[in-house]
Amino acid sequence: MIELHRVSRTYGEGATRVEALVEIDLHIPAGQFVSIMGPSGSGKSTLLNLVSALDVPTAGTIRIDGQDIGTLDDDALTLFRRRKVGLIFQFFNLLPTLNAADNVLLPVMLERKATAADRDRALAILDSVGLGKRAHHHVHELSGGEMQRVAIARSLILEPRLILADEPTGNLDSATGRSILELLKRTARDHGTTVVMVTHDRAAAEAGDRLVRLRDGHLEGDEAVTVPSVGGVG
Amino acid sequence: MRALLRGLGRLFTGALLSLVHLAALALSPWRIGRLLRTVSLPRFYEHRLRTALTVLGIALGVAMLISVVLVNRSILRSFAETLDDISGKADLEVTAAASYEEEKLEGIRGVAGVLRATPVVQETALLRLPGAKGERLLIIGVDFLGEDDEHFRRYDSAEMKAIKDDPIAFLNASTHLIIGRKLADRYGLKLKDAVPIQTPTGVQQFEIWGFIEDEGVGRAFGGAVAVMYYQAMQVAFDRGTRIDRVDVALAPDTPAEQVCAAIAAALGPGFEANRPDRRNAQVSQMLGGLNLALTMGSLVAILVGMFLIYNTMSISVVQRKRELGILRALGTTKRQILALFTLEGFLLGCVGSALGVAIGLGLARFMLAALTASVNEIYLQVAATEVHVDPLLVLAGFALGVAGAVASAFVPAREATRVSAVQTLRTGRFTPQAPRRGFTRADAGALALAGAALIARALPPIAGQPYGPFAATTLVLLSLALCLPRVLGLVRAILRRPLEAALGVEARLANDNVPRDLRRATITAGALMVGVSLTVAFAAFLGSFKTSTLKWVSQTVPADIFVTSGARFSGVKNTPMADTLREPLSAIPGVAEVDRIRIINIVYRDLPIKLLSANLEIFAKHSQMTFLQGDAETSVPAVLQGDVMVSENLARRLDLKVGDAIKLAAPTGERSYRLAGVILDYTSDQGTVILDRATMIRDWNDARVDTYELYLQPGADPEPVKRAIEEKYGEALNLFVLTQTEFRGELEHILDQTFAVMNALEFVALVIAVLGVVNALLATVLDRIRELGVLRAIGMLRRQVRRMVMLEAGILGISAVIAGIVAGLVLGFILIHDIFVVQSGWYIELLFPGVEIAQVAVLVVIVSTLAGWYPAREAARLNVSDALEYE
Lengths: 234, 887
Ligand SMILES: Nc1ncnc2c1ncn2[C@@H]1O[C@H](COP(=O)(O)OP(=O)(O)OP(=O)(O)O)[C@@H](O)[C@H]1O
Ligand SMILES: [Mg+2]
Description:
Mean pLDDT of chain B: 83
Strand order of the largest sheet of chain A: 6-7-8-3-9-10
Distance between the termini of chain A: 32 Å
Largest sheet of chain A: 6 strands, mixed
Structural class of chain A: alpha/beta
Shape of chain B: elongated
Structural class of chain B: alpha+beta
Distance between the termini of chain B: 37 Å
Mean pLDDT of chain A: 86
Helix content of chain A: 25-40%
Low-confidence stretches of chain A: 230-234
Helix content of chain B: 55-70%
Bound molecules: adenosine-5'-triphosphate, magnesium ion
Number of strands of chain B: 21
Strand content of chain B: 5-15%
Largest sheet of chain B: 10 strands, mixed
Largest interface: A-B, 30 and 28 residues
Radius of gyration of chain A: 18 Å
Oligomer: heterodimer
């Protein structure tokens, strides 16, 4: 599904040059739930941005579904993100002028005119993330956890093969965080979606099947998660 | 090419910023100056484009104001200077309503206290030299052989001295003259050369007997000047024995008022002795309407400029909330913040106004040529070629620009200081404002302003100027500006579904984005609205005026062919012709009847009006006069018996009624005419008195003809007649032969030319407003960087982003257009019903300028959408991963 071959990303020139990622080789098969951990500044977000085609590597190739995304132009990359990737950020994921349901529908509306069937599906997904009753609420009327759920629902609406989440629970209390992770895990399993999630939290990381560790732009560790279920932690 | 443009743009913004920087450095000895340098300057650099736009907005406003006023002053000044060069040393000038008989000179000389008196004849005539495209020459006829004349004028001319010693040869012909050195040099003219000049009897060859250096008289009228012996000039220009005025010098210690009264008494009613500068006042009065309209226009330009300044300043506050919070947390006092922001306004104001002064001076040079042309066409002959820079005026324009900038910085600055430190440090989450329902404060304000406008409209004129209605126009604009949030809401509600259906979700997002910063949206749309309303109002006015005038021409002046000399129109530029063409013109096949029109400038009750004569029998037969008082059956026979009619505007201005006595100072003495009728007439915006040709010849000794009006036999084709006239007399008399259609076209052209300055003003207002749109949308994009990052991340294409931002600009444009049309129609109504009627005495019907409204609507919506292009491009080019990091 995802193949990184000797991928490097450097920022800046001369004295201010930062090697955020150095010759990373990584293979993630379809359907896997991968957690990425590492200290602050180790290159986690950089890696995620490269995989979601928000950024381009300074060296190396990235293949997703066999497609070398380095060869695509901006429009193609944008369509790739829209159709193949679901993105969830740490905070401020949503458009404040839209209500929850319309936020979920946004990727569809960017693609085409939303039909009644699309709306029904958006409501169904919102229902499945436990927000059936909040569908017509405006963003400012939602709590932080509810906003993240809406973001998850949005990432699912076009049934992407890949979900990329950068610290989706970073701004939430632990109970809320746990339920969000549970949700991610469940959807990944149900739809066979590949998930790559960046986190600072060891417990959160154990929601996945595999744990990749980064330090100073290098792969420091790559292991299968042995703890059988999130429920077992804590 | 693009790189070059971009380079120039960089250079320009760079230069502006350096100026701002320098100004800031100048303040560095003070504490606030240091704050300015550490806090404000980096901001200015970071948002260099916005800073440049703000400076440019102020600059344009100031430039417009300065250039318009400078141009007006320069025209007046050039007139006054010529006057000064020609008769600067005269204590008094003796004038009648028009020219008068030379014999009056002796009467003047006999008045006690008059030390010297000398006659003056004056003409502006067309030079017919090859290459002198329409250039005019001021010819003064003086008695330079008499002793008195040299007391009044300084001639720096060696030849003239020689002539004085031995005048016989010079006086031998009526075509000998002395010309200005400047003019002679320009055309390479030498002594004894022949100069062809247009005269009432055709082109005559004048002989050069000398030159006057560029001093005194030689400097008058921009150097395009010639001097003749006055009696020779009377012959050459078919003036009989009439002179235009007598210059008078007083004996020492004689009170001027006393002599004035004595002269008036000695010469009889109608004659006046005045100080020469009195004529300046008359010229001001004549140009008054033009003047005031221009000044109002530039005030509007500055108003729009201030919108822009205010816009930028308030945007800057919004964007710096966090920074302000930090400043406050670090112990900066409220007062310091207030001072800082006001100072920023001051700084931008200074740089902008300085730039505005520079642009204004350049613009004035450019406008002077255009405006002089139309002034020469309708008002009076001036040779205004140089912009007279009045330092005080420039300073006033500068100060106004700075004051505007400071004022529009102060309001948002005060707001900034009200924000508490804690509140600003928290990153605000967006809370959509619930749409205001019911009666808001803005509604109350709008109503109050509308009420005030109604009252101001009804205020009587002060010193003949409609200041009340002028104020009403501003009040109307402000009132409608307060209604803009409602208009925006309405437009958004109407456009929401159709736009989304047609253009997709980006249209909907754009629509939703508009009210997120309602104040910014209102101000941006407000500036646009002002621009649109000016365009609509001027179009309404000009369209209505043109229609009324053209309708009047076709009804009242229905001649098939108009023949004039020296200019296409009988106005101030044409040369009156001797009365020699009636017979030959009547003999041309197809011609049924020939009327002769003579128009002279007279002064009546201090108004510089026109006295128009026609053969009223012929005139009344063809024309359908519109009578406001009297009627064709009784008035026309009365005028044939020696009565007069007056134009509608003169009657309205002076409150004249049929039966009143109109006393005019004719060259033969004062005449009293009975008023027999009031008719619609657009000959002069000051007023017109109409009499029969026989009366004119009898009382005014003037048989010359300005226009021959030809009526053709039914069905005759005007073209062959026109060609026949041109072939036979065209060259010698420099004739302009216009058919009715051409005549109307020419009239329209002159009106357009006169009001071209208005078009320039509305254009600048629109440009400033569009700059405001660019500015506001740039701010919008900056406000929403993170949001744009999210949209791009989840799959919004660059072109969708571009479309979203441009549509937001378009929606602002549409709202502004709607409010602007309403405001413009109200303004047009006030302009016609309350302002123009006072300034000209004409009452015209307001026509709905449908075509112009459609044009400006389409144009403004397109242009404001395009104004979103640059911010849209910036938004589309955002680096997505950086934008997501942005906070
Ligand atoms: N746009 C940029 N310009 C310059 N340097 C950058 C940029 N983005 C990231 N970096 C640098 O690259 C390195 C990796 O950054 P990255 O954001 O990937 O870290 P991270 O692991 O996500 O950290 P955190 O846990 O704090 O989010 C850091 O040293 C950072 O300073
Ligand atoms: Mg990170």
